[in-house]
Amino acid sequence: MPEIEFRSTMTVELVRSSAHDADVLFAARVSTLGEQTLEANQLDGAATESDLKRDRGLINYLMRDRHGSPFEHNSMTFYVRAPIFVFREFMRHRIASYNEESGRYRELNPVFYVPANDRNLLQVGKPGAYDFLPGSADQTALVQQQTRAAAIHSYEAYQRMLEAGVAREVARIVLPLNIYSSMYVTLNARALMNFLSLRTKRAGTQFPSFPQREIEMCAEQMEEHFRTLMPLTYESFNANGRVAP
Description:
Layout: E1 5-7, E2 11-18, H1 21-33, H2 35-41, H3 49-64, E3 75-83, H4 84-90, E4 97-100, E5 111-113, E6 122-124, E7 131-133, H5 137-163, H6 168-171, E8 180-187, H7 189-199, H8 213-229, H9 231-239
Parallel strand pairs: 1-5
Antiparallel strand pairs: 2-3, 3-8, 4-8, 6-7
Helix pairs in contact: 1-2, 1-3, 3-9, 7-8, 8-9
């Protein structure tokens, strides 16, 4: 049987992108200038300070007044490796394209998520207003021990069925939600901002969100790529309360 691996991290890699602040500006200005005028006015050199100020102002106007469609003319594809329970939360967002590895067609690798020592364990409060607090050392040890034991037991059962000739699509039914899977996620900036507004917790946001920590770990990495690719859009997103336009 393959060696079972436990980890507490999420993998997010930017595979490819066509996403720039210029995409937003081009899409917005075509409505008033027309395509031919835009093409004639494109600059070959670096943008001036005046250009940057004007571009920042237009993006901020679009974000503030929620003119969202110009933010859709771009694309980012991420490779994500995370536990299956995280993917089920991802797929609640019907604003992206997903392709996930299949347990019907390949034997799943024995890689399982186990919460790190700093993962909050206690849920205190009422629905919609929970606080999540650290557990005791004993609670942390219990969660980690039981998680490992359940994963080992389940994967051994999975292997026994495969060795007996049972189809992969049947054998996989005993595997727990903390087994890692992988997928590609493709979405545009407008969709990503919607995702980030719901799956990150930030002070000062217009509509506070309280995401499960594991999907927030993915969202934080996606946000860093977004910040680098589209700095003016990212700046405006934060300045306007992290509300998707």
